[in-house]
Each structure stands twice: as C-alpha cells, then as structure tokens.
Amino acid sequence: MTFLDQLRTAERQNGSLLCVGLDPEPAKFPTHWRGDASKIFDFCAAIVDATADLVIAFKPQIAYFAAHRAEDQLERLVAHMRRAAPQVPVILDAKRGDIGSTAEQYAIEAFERYGADAVTLSPFMGFDSVAPYLKYHGKGAFLLCRTSNPGGDDFQPQRLLEVPGQPRLYEHIAALAQGPWNQNGQLGLVVGATYPAEIARVRELAPTVPLLIPGVGAQGGDAVATVKAGWRGTASASTGPVIVNSSRAILYAAAGADFAAAARAEALRTRGVLQAALQQVQAG
Predict the structure, then answer these.
(1) Tens-digit pLDDT profile for residues 169-217
(2) With CB atoms counted within 10 Å of each terminal CB, which end of the chain scores lower, N or C?
(3) How confident is the model over 67-121, as pLDDT tens digits?
(4) Alpha carbon of 90 to those of 21, 82, 105, 162, 178: distances in Å?
(5) If we measure between CA atoms, which residue out of 184, 233, 180, 183 comes closest to residue 211?
(6) Are strands 57-60 and 18-22 parallel, antiparallel or unpaired?
(7) Among 59, 95, 135, 228, which one carries the catalytic annotation?
(8) Are 267 and 244 in contact (CB under 8 A)?
(9) 157 vs 97, 103, 162, 212, CA distance in Å?
(10) Does 95 participate in catalysis according to the annotation?
(11) What is the CATH number of domain 3-283?
C-alpha cells in the first residue's frame, strides 16, 4: 500500500481525521516516571496502545527523542506501532531541508532506519531538497506550506513579487505540491489550524493532496473551522485526506497512573469533534 492508501484505509477503518503527535517530554510524564528519559518508549507505547483504533496517523517528532539520546527508543516505538497498529501510518516529523547527498542520508534515516511511512520537509531549498525522498516509491513527504507559528508570517504570506496578483509564497508551494513536484502522488502539505482561511486557499490550489494540520488543542486551533476549510470529498471517501494533529492535549491529559486512559478519553473527544464537523461539511 502507498502512504495515501494507508491514510484512506485508516480514515475509513478508524472513522477518524485525528493524528496523535508523539512529543515526549520527560518533565511532563506521569508522576511515577517524571524526569526519566529512559521511559520515553514506555510512555509513547502506552499512548499508541490506548489510541490505535482512534487515529488516522501517528506523528513522532524526532527532536523530542534526539534531545534525550533516545533515537533507539524511537526505532523501538515505530516497530511497536507496526505490531500494535499496522493499519495506522507513521509520519516522522523531522522538517529536514538539505540538498544532494545530505538529503539522501536524511531519507535513509526516515525511511530505512526508522521505517516511517512519511516525513515532514522544508521545501525552501527547492525541488532538489525534496527529490531524494520521492525515490522511495509509496512513501509520503509533507512540505511546510502555511505553518501555525507566528513567525510563519515573516515569509509565507509574502508575495513572490510585490506586484498585485502575484502568488504568495505559501500559495506557490501549494501549487508546486499539487502539480510539477508531485510526480508520483507522494506529496502532502503542512498547514496550521490557526489559519482556516488560508487552509481553504491551500485546498483550492491543491485539491487532492493530503493536508497535515497541526495546531488543534493546546495551540488553540478550531477543529470545526479546520475541517470545513480543508476537507473535500464524498460521503464515502475524501479526495484529499485531512490529518488533524493534536499532541500535548492528548499526551498530558492526566499526570497519574491513569494517563493512558485519560489520553484515550481526550482522543475520543477530539475525534468526535472532528467527525461532527465532517458530518456538517458532508451535509452541505
């Protein structure tokens, strides 16, 4: 199955648009593990087990593992996901953006070392920073497009030329991802939930690519507005899948021994909000 096939299968089987981001911070772990980086795998595996039937994808953020010398735990975690949730694709949030042989090594890291199904990339060095990942047929790559952080305003909404009618930078990236760069249907886009009007614009320019949308939950993005802006399809299938990520609100829903049960409850709640929004969109 290609990454796009995996997404659509998980969307259908789990009835979900929700992605759980795995950003393990030992300082925020449950009381009995707090501050213990050796428990990163145990913490994340418990979250995976508690939410595997509720999500469209999992998204481990590599920096949270590397900062604690826990790359081996990330390898174990992805292997655990394959056993516990084989229907759920894994998006490695790495935001790599180099070129040439260095990009080739990063692609090996993402797809061969960690076994991810997709990876996030920065496209600002051009297509040759993306092409090495596309050699892995069936894998996915999400390009940063219109991100949810305030600093995204420094570049992304600026016009390529200060001439009326010229596309903004994020619009140009969306058009490239839908068109000439998407040679094998492997590309998706990262767009922040805090900008629903711009999600709608990205979807207009890129009607069929998957959208990875962080910013719902602790970052304050509106789940209903996000789905209305980004989802397109029929009652039976999406034409361009929407992957709405929530991390901290789910991971740290409780600080006691019941943390995994609390994470499941929050994931159920968030999935329900997203599905209610989807039903509104489908009803017109």
Answers:
(1) 999 999 999 999 998 999 999 999 888 999 999 999 999 999 999 977 5
(2) C
(3) 999 999 999 999 999 999 999 999 999 999 999 899 999 999 999 999 999 999 9
(4) 10, 9, 19, 40, 22
(5) 233
(6) parallel
(7) 95
(8) no
(9) 20, 27, 12, 18
(10) yes
(11) 3.20.20.70
End-to-end C-alpha distance for the chain, whole angstroms: 32
Q: In the block, which residue shows the tokens 């069929």?
A: 208
pLDDT digits (tens, 9 = 90+) for 236-272: 667 789 999 999 999 999 999 999 999 999 999 999 9
Q: Where are the beta strands (DSSP E) in the chain?
A: 18-22, 57-60, 91-96, 118-121, 140-146, 187-191, 211-213, 232-233, 238-240, 242-246
Neighbour count for residue 255 (Cβ, 10 Å): 14
What lies within 8 Å, CB to CB, of 16 at 6+ separation is 10, 54, 55, 56, 271, 274, 275
CA-based nearest residue to 130, from 156, 107, 160, 155: 107
Q: How far apart are the C-alpha atoms of 273 and 271, rounded to whole Å?
A: 5
Neighbours of 235 (CB within 10 A): 7
Residue 50 tokens read as: 């508690």
